[in-house]
Structures are given as structure tokens and as C-alpha cells.
Specification:
The protein has 179 residues and is mainly beta. It has one domain: Porin. The protein is built from one helix and ten strands; from the N terminus they run H-E-E-E-E-E-E-E-E-E-E. It has one helix at 2-16, and strands at 24-36, 46-58, 61-72, 76-77, 80-81, 85-97, 102-115, 121-133, 140-156, 161-178. The strands form two sheets. Strands 1-2-3-6-7-8-9-10 form an eight-stranded antiparallel beta barrel. It has a two-stranded antiparallel sheet with strand order 4-5. The chain is elongated and about 50 Å long. Residues 1-21 form the signal peptide. This is Outer membrane protein beta-barrel domain-containing protein. Keywords: Signal.
């Protein structure tokens, strides 16, 4: 019983201790995306140019808005190339700082296809990241890793297979301006 009480107190101290507040930041940068699961049948690699705005709610939490343009190269099957998938995802989310420079976040939203054979759909994305201080600036590098899923029906033209979620792992490196 005492161990459970002590453990509960330690968790509360960990959660409610103050860290450096992120008042407002704007991060701009590239992303490298690697499709997973059935999505790797459509593409082997993708890239994004993204912008993320964070509005601090407290020293440990913040709201995020993220958008950009994401494109995945099509694969070649028996001389037939699947079309490239290009979309503009628009996501909003919640960020929680576990330490001054490390965070976990979740985002949800929608994507607007520009090319390919998908329709607009639901987007969800859990991730982790860290801020790296720059030597002679108050600005930072935001390095993040996330899993992202786009839920909308797609058909692989070359094989005529259909699936409902296009998913990938994304690595983001952005220059974050403190405002």
C-alpha cells in the first residue's frame, strides 16, 4: 500500500513539475516519409514540406496546427507505374512535454488529395520529438518521428487491390522560430 502511494506521488510530481513554456512557435521544414503495410505496395518513399504552429497552453502542454504538401512516388509493377499520391493534410493536435525539450503529441484532421486515386479522408498521427538548441539563437531545431494514417479508399491500379488506410512513418526536421 505504501509503495502504491509513493509511486502515485512520484507520478504526480513528474506530471505537474513545471518545464520551459513554449509560448508560440512556428516550425518550417522538410519531412522524409516511408510507407508501411499495404501503402508500401503503392510507394516506397515520400517527402513533405510542412509548417507547424504551436500555441502554448501551459508550461507542459500546447495546441498544434500542421499543414503542408506531401507526395509519394508511385511503384512500378510489370511496366505499369502506380500514380503518385500527393495530398495536403491539415491537422490539429495536442502536445505534451515530458521534459523541457522532449514531447509526445497526437494530431487528427483531414487530407485533400491533389493527385492519385484517393478521396479526402480522416488523418490521425501520434508522434514524439525533441528540440535541439542552436548555438547563437533563441530558435531551435524540432526533430520529430511519427506514424501517420490517411483513412480513405484507394485502389492499386496495377494489381486492382483495394485498401482503406495509407500509412507511413515520417521523420521531420524543422527550424522552429520562437515568437
Amino acid at each position: 500500500m505504501r509503495i502504491r502511494t509513493l509511486l502515485t506521488m512520484l507520478i504526480c510530481v513528474f506530471i505537474f513539475t513545471t518545464t520551459k513554456a513554449q509560448i508560440s512557435t512556428i516550425g518550417i521544414g522538410p519531412e522524409l516519409n516511408v510507407p508501411t503495410g499495404n501503402s508500401s505496395n503503392i510507394s516506397s518513399i515520400g517527402a513533405s514540406a510542412a509548417i507547424k504552429v504551436e500555441l502554448g497552453l501551459s508550461p507542459k502542454t500546447g495546441l498544434t496546427i500542421n499543414s503542408g504538401i506531401t507526395s509519394f512516388l508511385g511503384r512500378n509493377y510489370f511496366g505499369i507505374r502506380t500514380p503518385a499520391e500527393t495530398a495536403v493534410p491539415l491537422k490539429g493536435g495536442f502536445k505534451y512535454y515530458t521534459s523541457p525539450n522532449f514531447y509526445v503529441e497526437g494530431q487528427v484532421g483531414t487530407n485533400f488529395p491533389i493527385s492519385g486515386n484517393a478521396k479526402s479522408g480522416f488523418v490521425w498521427s501520434p508522434g514524439v520529438g525533441t528540440y535541439l538548441k542552436l548555438r547563437n539563437s533563441d530558435n531551435q531545431l524540432d526533430v520529430g518521428l511519427r506514424y501517420e494514417g490517411w483513412s480513405s479508399r484507394r485502389t492499386i491500379t496495377a494489381t486492382n487491390a483495394t485498401f482503406s488506410t495509407f500509412s507511413f512513418i515520417g521523420l521531420r526536421v524543422a527550424y522552429a522560430f520562437n515568437l
